[in-house]
């Protein structure tokens, strides 16, 4: 998996650590000039091969003299201007300031064209990012990595100190959280030749930053599309599902680093985790439940539900419903699933378990228990709680009573 690594440090007269609240994007070095000049600068660059090197190799070259005092590393799935925007927005808000200028690589997601006189023509979304924060954007020479100073040394330091031996985590979020914690811990260290911690020195240098704008930057790419007959919307090369009620309608799409948001007119109708594969389909099974309720025989063959991993109690409830009510029981089971359109899975799961315990296997009973759990009141499914209802007294039928039927038949 080739994913870009993110690194950043904020030096002052020496090097001072900066910390990003969430996972960053791209390898990045923010540099503060001496405080008397009150100028903040930043250096930015991407290296999509860095994670592969960090994961596959343990011997990373780099002179010790170029080690930064601190760095923060994180991972994203793909380079893009949204990655730059989200990372810089998160960093600026964590530091409560904006650098005066930033030095960038000539990435295509940032620079759409280099003119004959060397002027860079910004990409649309990057131009919006620069206009929002009002920093001066500068660019390195193409193919000249030394324009960015010790960026490679920063990357090497993070690999050697934070990722050796090769770390193993259940998710990228857990990995990024661990990397961030290590970077934050380093702020408490006092380096040779200094009497203050890295964090204490950082506080003085932050005074050189420009103030934040009043609103955060929407770091997303925007597009428009139309819902297909299969209730899918294509963004880039992947298809994302929307509720079937919006079939064949025009929609807008916002592609963030971690999610894709789809809306129709002024309403948000779907949210999906961002998929960085190609020609993939991302389903939300809840979007298709109204259609499956009408065409109940498609319950077992519906592709959006094929990989839906529900708790075991849901399958038990379905078996009991179908045993008691046959086809109608299958439809009521889908109605139970449709409660997820309004309520969370944990709440519905608890209601299903309580319904199974009470042997109240019906949609109305599950919905009643669910509402009682949310309102924090006991469910009233016992008829003893309703004394005003008429009581039905069903007597035991004697086998001799059927003899009258035979007598009438012979007569």
Question: How would you sum up this structure, described in words?
Answer:
- The chain has 411 residues and is an alpha+beta fold.
- Helix content is 33%, strand content 17%.
- The protein is built from eleven helices and 17 strands.
- The strands form six sheets. Strands 4-5-7-10 form a four-stranded mixed beta sheet, covered by helices on one side. It has a four-stranded antiparallel beta sheet with strand order 11-14-15-16, with no helix packed on it. A three-stranded mixed beta sheet has the order 12-13-17, with no helix packed on it.
- Helix 8 crosses helix 9 and helix 9 packs across helix 10.
- The protein starts with a strand and ends with a helix.
- The N terminus is likely disordered.
What is the structural class? alpha+beta
Major sheet: order of its strands?
Answer: 4-5-7-10
- As a percent range, the share of helical residues equals 25-40%
Number of helices: 11
End-to-end separation in angstroms reads 87 Å
Please give a quick description of this structure:
This protein has eleven helices and 17 strands. The protein is of the alpha+beta class and about 400 residues long.
Any descriptors?
single chain, 411 residues, alpha+beta, 4-stranded mixed β-sheet, 4-stranded antiparallel β-sheet, 11 helices, disordered N terminus
